[in-house]
Write a structure and sequence with these properties.
Length: 266
Amino acid sequence: MEKKNRKMLIIALTLSLITAALVYIYISGIEPQQVPETEYMSIFAAARTIPEFTQITATDIEEIKVPKDLYTEDMVTDKEQIIGKWAVQSIIKGEFVRNARLADDKSLYFSYTIPEGTRAVSMNITEQVNVANLPRPGDYVDVVASFNREEDIHGDQTVTYPKITKVILQNVKVLALGQDTRLPADKLSEQPMTVTLAIKKEDVEKFVYASEFGIIRLALRTAGDESLIRTDGVVREDVTGLKGVVVETGAADADDADDKNDADKG
């Protein structure tokens, strides 16, 4: 019995050695995976918070290294493309300097901010006209005009224009409030005297006519809403229905004649 147990033990040890040898051979044959070396590149970030409309100097920026796979094309890699430029928006300390935040002297002129195909036109405003002073430069509004009843003579005919309210322009960009194209924090509650809108060049005359001879209101649009509506405008009947007293012309003339006869008899 003892001899049999010794034999089983020898067999177990032999198998263990063989298994260990096979595992060693297998592990030895595995080539270690090469971890790719991270590539870095130099870009520039704000060394301090740079307020908007500030000319950038060498002390305002610092060179940093970021993994190459984090780089995007709008990041600036050459400090000469930054120094001397103007920050058109605030750049927070540590934030990457991007081309979209930079402008040269020429680009700071207001005329370069007017969208192509439009004209910058200003009008006087009150808090009521300007939606309680809620629109900001960059917002979009609709222009609503109201006109009083008016008669115009064309040859031997008289044309009557009724009182009417109509949306005359839609999706119009607000360029400035007063002289501010971006409102600083200390002016957010200040009521401006004028608003400047980007009016399509073919609509400039329409807008000026409405602002000169009508009553203008601005309607602030939801951010991202570019939808347009088709409207013929509204007159009083569209709002209140026919609530007045209808008098037939013939009956009114007869009543006037009766009143005159009664007066003559008296």
